Amino acid sequence: MSAATMQVYYADHHAVPLPAGHRFPRAKYALLKQWRLERKLLPPAELFPSDPAPLEAVRLGVVRKFKRGFGAMTREVIARTVPRR
Q: Given 11, 42, 69, 80, which is the most exposed site by the fewest CB atoms within 10 A?
């Protein structure tokens, strides 16, 4: 019986247009992938590039989450857990 392999997908090769000064730590994903490869924590044979999500699917997902109160819930959790300056 052969050992099962994990399939790890990455998306650090996709361009994501963000406004200048946006705080999303996009570079960390490529760095994390490289760090794991260098330490042999992630075999290259288990690594696969992901396809970009269709923009319409992303839009629909965001709209559905906010319609269900996701935005309000997130703000409430942040207000309870993140210390204010």
A: 80
Q: Are residues 42 and 82 in the same domain?
A: no
Quick check: helix, strand or coil at residue 27? Answer: helix
When divided into structural domains, the chain yields a total of 2
Same domain? For 60 and 47 the reply is: no
- Amino acid identity of residue 69, one-letter, is G
Q: pLDDT, tens digit, for every residue of 35-82?
A: 999 999 889 999 999 888 777 777 776 656 555 655 565 666 666 665
Question: What range defines the domain where residue 25 resides?
Answer: 1-51
Q: pTM value? A: 0.53
Give the separation between CA 6 and CA 18, rounded to whole angstroms.
Answer: 31
8 Å CB contact between 23 and 40: no
pLDDT at 1: 41
Do 32 and 12 share a domain, yes or no?
yes
